[in-house]
Amino acid sequence: MSEKIVVGLSAAPVSERVVTWAEQHAKALGQSVELVTIVGGGVGAVGEDSIAQTAHEAAQQMLATHAARLKEAGVDVTVRVERGNPVAVLVEASEGATLLVIGSDSKGPGSGSVRGAHGIRISAAAKSPVVVVPDFDVSGRSGVLVGTDGSEVSAAAVRFAAIEAVRLGESLTALSVWTPMPIPGPLSGYPEPYLDDMQGVTAEILRGALASVREEHPDLEIVERVECGYPSTIITELAHDARLAVVGSHGRGAFARLLLGSISHEVLARLGTVTAIVR
Fold this sequence. Notes:
This protein is of the alpha/beta class. The protein is 45% helix and 20% strand. It folds into two domains: 1-103, Rossmann fold (3-Layer(aba) Sandwich); 139-279, Rossmann fold, CATH 3.40.50.12370. The two termini are 24 Å apart.
């Protein structure tokens, strides 16, 4: 049995981009796809059942159209319409999946996402890696970007990014960002030895984080990049030129998962490209 990609869809225009991304990924790795859409839960209003039935039928038709396209492309696909809370349904659907793919209505830098909170909550609580596809064209871009701080979670992100880079035939840019210790008061500037040491230590951590990936993928072109600044800002800036960006989620436990991790949260809030959140 092939591994399954779960794809969360709605009637939003971005769903076309979501299905396209999932199709290419599934075909390359021989995975099956489950298309899931959610009809809102009821509140007991008069006439609600007939509206829900109409919505259910429309959702079935939408999924059937997408499924026909995937089948024509040779992808094994199933469909499912659920009723309830989209976040809860997709989080549950992610359990046992190799990947959850969802869309964002973000139109690019500076636009944000009207429904961005849904994507952040889903990414925070999902049981599998989550790929968020924004509603803008990323064709013509190149390279896979991954942010790493040397932690166990970011190691998983690096492995995921390397596999995707190989699949796409792209180079991998591994980014580590260090931030100077804040200095209160009027003092400005930092001693050069401190800055040089922070740069050197971060570069050493990055080299260590990439050691196993270099062994596993000896032919993969890997670019090491160490920057000074704020991580989410630099990741977002570099993501504007990348085909895919990958970051780790540090969410642990129910409360931490809701927070997702400030860096991951901020990257999702200002999507620069198709972005994967890996835990």
